[in-house]
Amino acid sequence: MEKYLAQIKAHPAFEGITQDDDILWLRKCMDAKIENFQRGETVFREGDELLFASIVLEGSALAVSAEGKLEKIGPGGYLFVGMPSGQSFYAPFTILADTDLTVLSMRALRLGKLCSFRCVFHAQLIENIHNYFA
């Protein structure tokens, strides 16, 4: 995750969270992880149950709907629609890696409420996400 600190801190969801240690603590607090996909790989399919919500850090993805609508999602874009809530959510479209793709994935359950650590930056992240994705 250290390699992507600049991209993570530049995203509107992380506005006001300036300390590298706070971003790195997300691994515990948000069960966050960096995931890599090769060009052409299917990230997930429409209707799949997802436990993690992802933001594109590097590369681009293609979102394909059942109706055939195609949308390109680049760095800073997100691989979900609206604010995920609850323990999981269902993929609103199929995501394909248009190029080699790197995403930051955070547990959906922790996007809606504070974790047991009660981190100040976690509260800021939740507020930012509600403002950014609402």
Explained architecture:
The protein is of the alpha+beta class and 134 residues long. It has a single domain, classed as Jelly Rolls (Sandwich), CATH 2.60.120. It contains four helices and nine strands; from the N terminus they run H-H-E-E-E-E-E-E-E-E-E-H-H. Strands 2-8-5-6 form a four-stranded antiparallel sheet, with no helix packed on it. The two termini are 26 Å apart. The model has no long low-confidence stretch (mean pLDDT 90).
Summarize the helices and strands and which ones pair or pack.
Layout lengths: L4 H6 L9 H10 L3 E5 L4 E3 L4 E2 L1 E7 L2 E4 L5 E4 L15 E2 L3 E4 L3 E7 L1 H4 L7 H14 L1
Antiparallel strand pairs: 1-9, 2-8, 3-7, 4-9, 5-6, 5-8
Give helix and strand order, one letter per element, not per position: HHEEEEEEEEEHH
- Cα-atom radius of gyration: 14 Å
Residue-averaged pLDDT = 90
Report the CATH topology name.
Answer: Jelly Rolls
Give the CATH H-level superfamily.
Jelly Rolls
CATH level-two architecture: Sandwich
β-strand percent reads: 25-35%
Number of domains: 1
Strand order of the largest sheet: 2-8-5-6
Tell me the span between the first and last alpha carbons: 26 Å
User: Helix count?
Assistant: 4
Which percent bin holds the helix content? 25-40%
Shape by Cα distribution: globular
Number of strands: 9
CATH class equals: Mainly Beta
Largest sheet: 4 strands, antiparallel
Spans of at least 5 consecutive residues whose pLDDT stays below 50 are none
Structural class: alpha+beta
